[in-house]
Amino acid sequence: MSIHKEIKRITTHTLQDFKEKGIKISMLTAYDFSMAGIIDSAGIDVILVGDSASNVMAGHETTLPITLDQMIYHGASVVRGVTRALVVVDLPFGYYQGNSRVALDSAIRIMKECGAHAVKLEGGSEICESVQRILSAGIPVMGHLGLTPQSIYKFGTYTVRAKEEAEAKKLMEDAMLLQKTGCFAVVLEKIPAKLATAVSKKLLIPTIGIGAGGGTDGQVLVSHDMLGITKEFKPRFLRRYLNLADEIQNAVKQYVDDVKSKNFPNKEEQY
Ligand code: KIV
Question: Which end of the chain is less enclosed by CB atoms within 10 A, N or C?
Answer without folding.
Answer: C
